[in-house]
Amino acid sequence: MWQEIIVALIVIAALAHFCTKYLPEALRRQIVIALSKRGYDEAKLSKVFNLKSGCGDDGGGCSSCGSCDTTPTKSNPATPHQRVIKLHVQR
What we know:
0% strand, flat
């Protein structure tokens, strides 16, 4: 019985580590929003899930994401660059 409990705790810890590190940011943000609607602290969940504060948060304001900038810089160009993956079909 103790072995099953210990294995379950290890699996839960591994799942929590996976969720906080390897899930896409949009999915992590949805998890934080869903948990905050159920009464959990959104600021603490954002730290656990490694999410940056948004433009409306008190932590960073509009300077945190740089989406409000209109001047092109190297890190925030005015036009987004798109990567093109060229596919070569061999028949």
